[in-house]
Amino acid sequence: MASYTDQLGRNITLDHFPQRIISLVPSQTELLYYLSLRDETIGITKFCIHPDTWFRTKTRVGGTRDIKPDIVRKLQPDLIIANKEENQKDQVEALAQHYPVWVSDINNLSDALDMIRSVGKLTGRETAAISLADEIHRRFASLSLPSISPAPRTAYFIWRNPWMVAGGDVFIHDMLQKAGFDNIFGAQKRYPSIELETLARLDCKMVLLSSEPYPFSEKHIDEIRAVLPEADIRLVDGEMFSWYGSRLLEAPAYFQELRGRMI
Q1: What CATH number does residue 256 fall under?
Q2: How far apart are CA 212 and CA 210, in angstroms?
Q3: Which domain-ending residue is among 91, 107, 123?
Q4: Residues 109-138: pLDDT tens digits?
Q5: DSSP at 152
Q6: How far apart are CA 121 and CA 105, in angstroms?
Q7: Tens digits of per-residue pLDDT, 37-66?
Q8: Which residues have C-beta within 8 Å of that of residue 26, sequence separation ≥ 6?
Q9: Under a CB-based contact definition with an 8 Å cutoff, are residues 208 and 157 in contact?
Q10: Last residue of a domain, one of 78, 107, 136
């Protein structure tokens, strides 16, 4: 029997390495796949699109904010992996009354690496997880961005109607910094709603439109350009800025290529 502390400071006890895992977070589902927990992972959400084989074959327990307790009950998990931001607190607490629930809380790269190591430890994949975290750290440390001074004053949009951007206390903000962008909404919390006219007042030079959770497209570039005609407006891969599992292996090279196209 072993005790594990999650990133909220909660303790869970496991009698053995879990054999029936449910993941409620897409990026952490992909991490479980990377750690070769194919047989052990029995349930995922409808938003866990990577890997495709799991998306097509694993039992779906609902959405990240709409977990179906009846499906969870039928699966009889011996571990559920959740996240403070992506899952609903009341749903997680309800599940925790019946099953061990390990919750991540990730606001920066350091938190993500700690999560990876912790998930590896509690699932019996500690060596592979440590190796993964070390390689991600190495790739970010060796990231060499094109010299653009000062850093582009940037707004990163995640939603439309209302227009919502990444604030300064979320994981995306840390990725923006590491990719060499100056988040003009860094002084705000979470994902504030804004008026497009605010961009001009804040001297915004760069607008990044994420591919998720809102599927921005070319037509939205035109919409923003109408109020910010001089800005550089680009569609970007939201997974590279917001997925904090094994997908982080690919993020430094993506940031390098993205910034290279801006020269």
Answers
A1: 3.40.50.1980
A2: 5
A3: 107
A4: 999 999 999 999 999 999 999 999 999 999
A5: P
A6: 17
A7: 999 999 999 999 999 999 999 999 999 999
A8: 45, 47, 48, 49, 50, 64, 86, 243
A9: yes
A10: 107
